[in-house]
User: What shape does this take?
Amino acid sequence: MCGIAGIISCKDNPAPRPEQLQAMCESMLHRGPDEQGSNIQGSVALGMRRLSIIDLAGGSQPIFNEDETILCVFNGEIYNYRELRQDLEKRGHTFRTNSDTEVIVHGYEEYGDNFPVKLNGMFAIALHDTVRRRVVLVRDHMGIKPLYYAFDGNYLVFGSEIKVLLASGLVDRKLDIDGLGQFLAWEYVPGSQTLLQTVQKLQPAHMVAIDLRAVDVRPRQYWDIPEHPTNTLSAGEWEERVDALLQTCVRRQLVSDVPLGAFLSGGVDSSLVVAAMGKAKTFSIGFDDPSYNELAWARTVAAHLDVDHSDEILAPDIGDLFNRLVHFMDDPIADFSIFPTYLVSAVARKKVTVALSGDGGDELFGGYETYVAQQRAAQYACLPAMFRHKLVEPLFRSVRPRAAKKGLINKAKRFFEGAALPDNLGHCRWRVFAGQAQLTLLFTAEAADTITTPIDAHITRLFEKAGQRDPLTKCLYVDTKSYLCDNILTKVDRMSMAVSLESRVPFLDPELVSLAFAIPPHLKVAGNTTKVLLKKVAARHIPAQCVYRPKEGFSIPIKHWLKSTLRPIMEDLLEEKTLKEQGLFNWDRVNQLKNEHLLGKENHSHQLWALMMFQAWNRKWLKGQ
Assistant: This one.
């Protein structure tokens, strides 16, 4: 596990300087505290920071081929490197190390630009072919590892984090207000866009092959989740296949020369990963608020599986933690769970260097309540419009939100909020935290005029790209290609790497992803039951009461903390004078959101938190304060 960085100078511009590359590498010391590597040849500079996991002594990067004409730096792990190495050695390639990185340069030699398809792992790769005078950038199939780039015609700058690009001194800090609209709507910026006009994300399963004689950056997709024909397997046969393959994928990801463990929430996904590991070290955290504490479930599963379990009930200084985490939010997300993700990563890092997680199970096997809500919305729409709009919806709007994490009232209010959004958003309506009407109220007229991308643009595109799949599988495809990679995986990468912990995601093995998307929809969501098949698999390994319990999610009581611990930070970041001088937001609307939330009339925690995260990002990463 590492962080990578690079510069390509174009035309007759000066070559990259060692001090530029050094600054880029130093900016991501947290990603690789063990070692630094660099190489500058002509117009191409490659650098990296290493967190040593495999071949601790011999895996230093850059890694070269036999005659040192091809080299690469790489962030991630290649889980099938042993099998690839055997095949490449049979084809005449000579290996100098025992690292997984070396299969990349020899794989490129043997398979050309098709080499990423051969890799099973999580990766962001920069490869320099000095003979053919080209650079190849690649991101893994599912987007587990990040890769950002900026190209202005004079320089192409790339790296594992946006701060790495900014450290080069070659990237302008210009706000993309269009991206800001997306951020406030979804709590992340979807697709290739970021909050900086000059910076883009290389999307999952994409690569860029760059001819150094005429640099042109055109990403192309090298893989997609396959569509499957109708099958005739029984539910029991599917259950067997999923159980067997999940165990294979977990074992595949246990390769490590350093201590390894797993996150354990006590839910279906993380419990299945731990069950497949055998003897394992597991880690959980909890909070004083009982609505946000799932430690009892994690302890039950840990005892049942007889693993070496560690957990802590935390009462963090949330204000200090907020300021600390802004450093790792140069590509910000407003997901509340950045806090518990960071804290459980810190707990795990005390004992291990690698931790497996259960992320991806919801997107592959139908675990979100939004899929049920979409079905219920269709039924609700059959009721008379007068009854819906004049009686039911005003009634629930008038009810104050409850203090508990979820509950019937809070879920009902959220249902009606989502159901009021446009139908073309489908199940994603319940992921929107500021719809078009709310954004119109929130932005000043001048700022709103610069927003050109509708908030549903990427959702519409992904639904179209999902092809002829059934309706539920289309929803899973959309979530896998947006919410999972742009929010969940970004969060896990940022927060685990903040403490120099490698996080692995067995559910996102491409083989398991392909199998999961072939499973019939009725084995994923049936009525009010989510993850139908996966829960049956889980019940083979862990107590039924842990499997068939309400889904809680990994979160913290932000809505309460905004009224107490976090209120001084909120008042500072959303201060009237600052917002009016900034000219982006309508102060009256922001003040209304604050007052209604503080008085308990509405739960505006998501909108307020997104505004706070942006303002904190703006201070540190746009203004450099």
In short: Residues 269 and 324 are 29 Å apart (CA to CA). The longest helix spans residues 471-497. The chain has three domains: 2-221, 235-314+333-366+490-547, 557-625.
